[in-house]
Amino acid sequence: MTSPRHYLQFKDFSAEEYAYLFRRARWIKDKFKRYETYHPLFDRTLVMIFEKASTRTRLSFEAGMQQLGGSAIYLNTRDSQLGRGEPIEDSAQVISRMSDAVMIRTFEQGIVERFAANSRVPVINGLTDDLHPCQALADIFTFIEHRGPIQGKTVAWVGDANNMCNTWLQAAEVLDFRVHVSAPSGYGIRSEKIGLAGTDHYQLFDDPKDACRGAHLVTTDVWTSMGFEAENEARRQAFAGWCVDTDMMAVAAPDAVFMHCLPAHRGEEVTSEVIDGPQSLVWDEAENRLHAQKALMEFLVLGRVDERNGFVLPDVTCC
């Protein structure tokens, strides 16, 4: 039996594979917008395992699987044997014999890795405390739609060096762009959680405004991620100077865009003027979780359908 491909972190795929995925995402999105039925995953089943709460992840995967002709089954760890002490390895053996793909949204990166090591079908990281590759996949697809190739560009990350920041740093190495990171003291990057090859693709800044200077994309996230609620007040004080505002956007590149993976707290990590302003792509970014993940599921379950079926995708310079 051939070992399945998994998507546990952004660096699991090559730049060439991402180029393919972004072409597929654009093709699939175009069919969706024209209300054309496309069911390559007819009679296939995605199992979605949630330990963390979700809006966009559940909706995009569940709707996406149905739009591809398959079905999605929701499992919450509180309502299954996973939450009652059944070993992850045993659960993976059983669940993967009854499905065609598994998406997991949980706390520890080790959980998705242990599950994947014992799964007979592709496993997708829907989010962990360390990494969020599906969000970065959608974000970069959104940037490409609006501004063209991301290679050689600069992304400014302002705020907590969390799972999204980690994933942007991985993506920068794979797709050859730079990330400017500005985080308060004590909330900076921890390179051991990312597995970077070096420091060539990122730079650290004490002043968030300096990080935004000349950036083509400015992005941030909430100050307190899920699982860190006990630190909320301390984080409010530490992050007071890390709110993306119009002054930060003004020093970015003239055509810079703003992104946020949502949910957002206006007046904390970003002002209303920025997230609701003309440079913001947050709603396109949120929608593109659907289209990028459909391309991802198709690729993991079926492989390269354009090569196998002999049709040619429209060309796009993407990375």
Report what the structure shows.
The chain is of the alpha/beta class and 319 residues long. It has twelve helices and nine strands. The chain has helices at residues 15-33, 56-67, 88-96, 109-117, 133-147, 163-175, 208-212, 232-238, 246-251, 272-275, 282-302, 305-309, and strands at 45-50, 71-76, 101-105, 123-127, 154-158, 178-182, 202-204, 217-220, 257-260. The strands form two sheets. The chain has a five-stranded parallel sheet with strand order 7-6-5-8-9. Strand 1, helix 2 (56-67) and strand 2 (71-76) form a beta-alpha-beta unit. Helix 2 (56-67) crosses helix 11 (282-302), helix 3 packs across helix 4 (109-117) and helix 5 packs across helix 11.
Number of helices: 12
Q: Please, what is the average pLDDT?
A: 93
Number of strands: 9
- The sequence of SSEs as H and E is HEHEHEHEHEHEEHEHHEHHH
Please tell me what the overall shape is.
globular
Low-confidence stretches: 310-316
Structural class: alpha/beta
Distance between the termini: 33 Å
Q: Write out the strand line-up for the largest beta sheet, numbering strands in chain order.
A: 7-6-5-8-9
What profile does the largest beta sheet have?
5 strands, parallel
